[in-house]
Amino acid sequence: MKTIDWTPDRASPIPLHKQIEEYIRAKILHGEWTVGTVIPSQRTLAETFGVNRSTVVEALNELSSLGLLEGKTGGGTRIVNTTWSLMASSPPTDWQSYVSAGISQPNMPTIQEINLAEFVPGIIRLGTGELAPELLPDDDILQLFQSRTERKLALGYEEPKGNLFLRQQIAGRLKSIGIQAAASSILIVSGALQALQLISIGLLGKESTILAENPSYLHSVPVFQSAGMKLQSLPMDDDGLETWLVPTYQKQYKASLIYTIPTFHNPTGLVMPEQRRQQLIRLCNEERLPIIEDDVYRELWLDSPPPLPLKSFDQNGNVLYIGSLSKSVSPGLRIGWLVGPEPVIERLADVKMQTDYGSSALSQWAAGEWLAGGRHDMHLARLRENLRNRRDHALEILERNFRDIARWRKPSGGFYIWLRLEKPVSMRSLFEQAKKAGILLNPGPLYDRSAADYLRISYSYASLQELEKGLTILSGIIREHLTASSQG
């Protein structure tokens, strides 16, 4: 019920409150809004329907008198089953109890709000971690499908590990960054998130502990928690994960693995130096602690190529390596890969077959042809230039508007600027006020509960004009908060 795509017809002779009443009544009686569900607040409904709150109150009062709604102090207004029409048959299924009982944990409320608001027309997405539509290679992909190739278009199922030709292309590209992996050691997945899901249910037991950087993207997705596991945060400094703490944390928490984004880290943009990478490999080998290396931003360097991946230093098969085309080519292709020891890959391939019977064969075919034909490198050259311009433009705007109220580092690649406000503000209030002004933010607490004075600013999605407008407005909103705080 988070999305209502209807508004009353003001040209209709039927009063607005009656239209709203009939809309909600139909939703309930047709089983779309089930018994036990809490409906949105009166204020939210009024804003959604574009009417006065009194109009909504009149409609809800009528529905309550019919026995369809019931208000509870502190519990909101719920859909109930006290009408004769509903009681005349067997009681309806209490779907709300099923929703509450599901083992998959829901996203944080703010994440849910962001996921919905991203599709509001005209909103400026200052935190979105994906490429803008104009940066996606639409024409090149279309030409790829229209071209003749040696390999027949794939429309059936692929083998459990994925399209062999695609895996061979990935193996060749991995070799160029120091990773020796045969196609048999590569599993095609539907993006990096699915790789994490497969690891959580295919390799780890319940109540396992995962060590992760703090802040970390992993704190914003409950993939491991939904599988009954715990996240334990590891601190970071300007060079990334403080690797020397790994033995201490491992002794205390007996972790099953460690998760890291050492290259263009999400959300901080940091890059772990080579010396520290080698130290992390050595310490994890000594602790017999496997590593998940999430390397989806590697190709998005803007100034110079980053250090070789952790996996390139791995002589013991201790690193599970994740790559993807979602950040560099197309999130819609849903193509990523997981590299690891063959027994691990075979196990996870079997789990994946139980889950979805393999990633899209059509997408795998397209990805294989894309990587084989030289298109990828040409696209990356153009993309880096565009991202470099966007980053530099964002930094110029920040310098003009934020230099006295925030601090930040210049990222050398990836999508993100980790912006720290000099003085604390209510991040929830800032999020809501910015949203009302048509700006969508990614607050720091999504990635670290204690990061209450941080924002993840992305230069990959908003246009140059939107960056200018959005950041300028945001600066004004922050200053208003700071002024009100000082006066309070």
Mean pLDDT: 91
- How many strands appear in the DSSP assignment? 15
Q: Which band does the percent of strand residues land in? A: 5-15%
CATH architecture of the largest domain: 3-Layer(aba) Sandwich
| Distance separating the two termini | 38 Å
Uncertain ranges: none
- What summary fits the major beta sheet? 8 strands, mixed
Backbone structural class:
alpha/beta
Looking at CATH, the homologous superfamily of the largest domain is Type I PLP-dependent aspartate aminotransferase-like (Major domain)
What is the count of DSSP helices, taking H or I runs of 4+ residues?
Answer: 17
Top keywords for this entry?
488 residues; alpha/beta; Arc Repressor Mutant, subunit A; Aspartate Aminotransferase, domain 1; Aspartate Aminotransferase, domain 2; eight-stranded mixed β-sheet; three-stranded antiparallel β-sheet; 17 helices; globular
